[in-house]
From TrEMBL:
Tree of life domain: Bacteria
Pfam families tied to this protein: DUF87
Alphabetized PANTHER family for the sequence: HELICASE MJ1565-RELATED
Name of the protein in its database record: AAA+ ATPase domain-containing protein
Residue stretches making up the AAA+ ATPase domain: 24-284
Entry-linked InterPro entries: AAA+_ATPase (IPR003593), ATPase_Atu1862_pred (IPR014588), HerA-like (IPR008571), HerA_central (IPR002789), P-loop_NTPase (IPR027417)
Chain intervals for the UniProt region annotation (Disordered): 308-333, 486-508
Species whose genome carries this gene: Ciceribacter lividus
Compositional bias (Low complexity): 488-501
Alphabetical list of Gene3D superfamilies matching this protein: P-loop containing nucleotide triphosphate hydrolases
Length: 508
């Protein structure tokens, strides 16, 4: 069925039609500098096609959540675990629900991981649910960068792989990518090259104008025209719109973004006590915790440190007592004791709970070298397992029990970032301790968000690992069917007054 949606007007005043069925098969690339009207164009496309096709919007700034009021889009908060997002994406495809994945408030690396998990969840849906979906990705250069930036290599590859799947292999699965970017030069070429339809807006940099002209099949000398385009004016080309470049003025929209372009406003009259207002802190500011985020550490640095810590290769004539230069000769027991001491030093830092495993691992390797501990470095997987055990706060007596061994086995079924939370809850159940509060769970996960803590419990329950219920007074109880144990009743809203665990023993 051919459906032409109205995108605005052409130069002669005729309506500019876009064949939505053709668009699903050939994809779309929108380019324009900030303020050129890209978001307005995407909103017009979404509004006009909402009744014809399922829509999914990857929204880094939360601008498109207003679609839910008029068109019923489900708003999905990106502040979830990767497993949660993948599960939601799969159910989105099964039930054919339009949604907006809002990543507002997340740091860039978290946005990339969340978007990748959601896109992969849609991509991996069962064949029987491969219904057509219009997948709109705003600020696509963030999720498919042409080169590495300040994020880890692992996050970049994960996000770029998901975007490549969407644009290169998504068509057979019913996924039609619509990507918008401020800079063509910052967008990965293999992602941009898969689009057959183009809407090019105002652009100032020579390299971006040249690429836009090449994509539209225009002469390089005509590229200067992109500097003169007004806000909301685009040049269209592609089988879904026109076989030759045509100027289009995008029409009006019915919904509005929460953010808008800056407008001049007169300053208010200065109050008499302005110095007191500025220099006197509010009591709430003093109680607000100060979070010092560690700068993102690229993965290659960790690899280099691991390489430096690796034992020297064996010589042609092996010597039983040979050690790497600069390290101390020690027994396996002494080496294990020193490694445990290094791990204890790192995790005793109050801010360690809010640092990523890769940052902690890098610091662990550096301190191990400073203590001149020889031998092969501890693998990243083993390091994460030990950190999870330490953060659970388990004592030596509990760690030697059969119930704890079962808990460790169950923890292998959850992702690395959730094992610390799971083991902490399991320890509380085994020892019949009060159920940890939301803030305590959040700290174990490395966040200050109590809402995320509740989502983690919901995820564990969804996976069949725990059963959450309350007693008659409303206090929370978490039961572990596999352990035949449950926590004592505890208040979910209690303050996080429990100190960080300090019993850093070698849990094998």
């Amino acid at each position: 069925m051919q459906v032409g949606i109205d995108m605005g007007t052409l130069a002669g005043g005729q309506p500019a039609k876009l064949d939505i069925e053709e668009l699903l098969a050939t994809r779309l690339l929108v380019q324009g500098n900030s303020g050129s009207g890209k978001s307005h164009l995407l909103r017009r496309l979404l509004e006009q096609s909402a009744q014809w096709v399922q829509q999914v919007v990857i929204d880094p700034e939360g601008d498109f959540v207003t679609l839910s009021d008029k068109y019923g889009h489900l708003v999905v908060d990106g502040e979830r675990t990767e497993a949660e997002l993948a599960g939601i994406a799969d159910r989105i495809r099964r039930h054919r629900v339009s949604c907006v994945l809002t990543l507002e408030g997340l740091e860039i690396e978290q946005q990339m991981r969340a978007a990748a998990a959601f896109l992969n969840g849609m991509f991996d849906a069962d064949r029987e649910f491969w219904y057509p979906v219009l997948v709109v990705v705003d600020e696509a250069q963030m999720f498919a960068p042409s080169m590495g930036g300040d994020v880890s290599e692992d996050a970049r590859r994960m996000s770029l792989g998901a975007m490549t799947n969407l644009m290169c292999r998504g068509r057979k699965r019913g996924l039609a990518g619509v990507i918008a970017t401020q800079r063509l030069a910052k967008l990965a070429k293999n992602v941009a090259a898969e689009a057959s339809n183009f809407l090019m807006g105002r652009t100032f940099l020579d390299i971006d104008m040249a690429r836009a002209a090449d994509l539209l099949g225009m002469d390089r000398r005509q590229a200067e025209m992109f500097r003169d385009l007004k806000r909301g004016n685009f040049v269209a080309l592609g089988p879904a719109m026109s076989r030759r470049p045509l100027p289009i003025v995008i029409g009006s929209v019915e919904t509005s973004a929460r953010s808008s372009s800056p407008k001049l406003m007169p300053l208010p009259e200065a109050p008499q006590d302005v110095e007191d207002l500025i220099f006197t802190p509010d009591p709430e500011e003093l109680a607000r915790p100060i979070v010092r985020r560690a700068p993102p550490q690229p993965r290659p640095t960790t690899d280099i440190l691991a390489e430096l810590s690796r034992a020297a290769p064996a010589a042609s004539t092996p010597v039983a007592t040979e050690t790497r230069p600069g390290t101390l000769e020690m027994s396996p027991e002494e080496r294990e004791e020193r490694l445990s001491a290094v791990l204890a030093e790192i995790l005793d830092d109050p801010q360690a709970a809010y640092r990523t495993d890769s940052v902690l691992y890098q610091e662990f390797l550096v301190r191990a070298r400073m203590r001149r501990i020889g031998g092969p470095p501890m693998a990243m997987g083993e390091f994460r397992r030990r950190v999870a055990v330490v953060r659970s706060g388990v004592d030596a007596e509990t760690a030697s029990s059969d119930a704890w061994k079962t808990a460790l086995s169950l923890a292998e079924g959850v992702s690395d970032d959730l094992q610390g939370v799971f083991l902490m809850m399991a320890k509380a159940a085994i020892r019949k301790e009060a159920c940890p509060s939301d803030l305590r769970i959040a700290r174990a996960y490395g966040t200050h968000s109590a809402r995320r803590a509740r989502r983690l419990l919901g995820y564990f329950e969804e996976q069949g690992l725990v059963v959450v219920h309350t007693d008659f007074s409303g206090k929370r109880i978490v039961a572990f069917p596999e352990l035949e144990a449950e926590t004592a009743p505890g208040s979910a809203d209690a303050a996080d007054d429990q100190p960080a665990p300090t019993d850093h023993f070698a849990a094998e």
